[in-house]
Predict the structure.
Amino acid sequence: METLKRIFRDHPAPASDAGDEAYELVRATAECAAACTACADACLAEAAVLQLRDCIRSCLDCADLCAVTGRLLARPGEQDADTLRAQLSACETACRACATLCAHHDGMAHCIACAEACRRCADACRGMREAIVS
Amino acid sequence: METLKRIFRDHPAPASDAGDEAYELVRATAECAAACTACADACLAEAAVLQLRDCIRSCLDCADLCAVTGRLLARPGEQDADTLRAQLSACETACRACATLCAHHDGMAHCIACAEACRRCADACRGMREAIVS
Amino acid sequence: METLKRIFRDHPAPASDAGDEAYELVRATAECAAACTACADACLAEAAVLQLRDCIRSCLDCADLCAVTGRLLARPGEQDADTLRAQLSACETACRACATLCAHHDGMAHCIACAEACRRCADACRGMREAIVS
Amino acid sequence: METLKRIFRDHPAPASDAGDEAYELVRATAECAAACTACADACLAEAAVLQLRDCIRSCLDCADLCAVTGRLLARPGEQDADTLRAQLSACETACRACATLCAHHDGMAHCIACAEACRRCADACRGMREAIVS
């Protein structure tokens, strides 16, 4: 996402917190959204789909929240700090829940990979949330 | 959204809170997402766009959060209560911020209409959040 | 979606085709997106989920395309006619495919309801596409 | 997006075209969606916003279509080929239109960067569309 980095750098009025941390969070949400979307699709194609239903549902929710959180962060201008903090909290919650469910299916490589993406995204959300000042 | 009501009624394993309140919230988020998207577009076309920049930004964020919150609610099966509560809180926060900004532009009918949709959606989010039990 | 209608009416520079037809299409896409999201969730909770996998996948795709098509239409200013036409064509294609799959499961009321929403949205997309002049 | 690559590799029933090309396209859409979202935000913050209105509108549409196209591709199971082809066509059309508008503002680095992301995504969409067999 090198073009995004260049756009962030060239933004005429970036928020104080629109730096490398925001850029890394956009990357983490994009990766997690794609991983959750693909993992839900893979779970749906498994013979054991009956046992994977809560994982599919959790992946769908997590993909949606990661995608929208990345969008907010990809707008580097002045933001409503309360909204951003609340959304980062919701995204972290969804990522942790999905990571826990996916980690239960440790016989499936796609669930393991998805759980890793979720944990990284959750950590990035928490870091960003704690960094928002006002 | 009569078809949605029928699908909710026919769901084989709905969550305890997937009733009329969830249905009304999906409607409120759909209306608010569309109103915010259209209001941002209208503000952008105004001669006074320079004074409407924070309103546009706020409408874009609010439209995104309403759309994703509606999606979570449109899945009436068992949900992660913590994720749902956090997302409802984020959506309410965005709606209240957007309603406040839009209400400042009381010379513009599209901002007034948008502020009304935001307030209704915020109230619906709070009602739903308080109704989630565990 | 009465607020959307008011915003459309108050838009300072609406496209020639941003009238009642666009408004009705935004409504149809919102209904179809919600119906497909809820139908996928209902199918996932059915005991016969193994037989419903293609329906779930189709509903997820259709929900995504309806949501994004509604967003384009909810921006009533001047649009890129080629983009709009192509997107309306993609949305119609997804809706027809999903309607066909859902209609196969005529023992399930949620699939029947979803198929109806898909057919209405497909027809609305085609009508709008044919109405775009340039 | 290394986790996505691992999930694609571990999918139990991937479509014939769900290989490296699909993976690269998910990456290209994610980059273009983020670039367009950030470029619209940067244009909105420019003093010359009045001259950038068509660019903002185009970036918003393009971001939406790239995001949804990436979602379809991130589901590597069997797809409806007609829907996928039509959506790739719509996404390519939006990307080319946005690249053209952004390239006009060659005094702004964010528009130049965004135009590059759009062109890469358009080319990736076309390549994928031509590769879909049935």
Notes: Chain A has one domain: 2-131. Residues 2-131 of chain A form a domain with the Substrate Binding Domain Of Dnak; Chain:A; Domain 2 fold (CATH 1.20.1270.360). The CA atoms of residues 46 and 52 of chain A lie 8 Å apart.
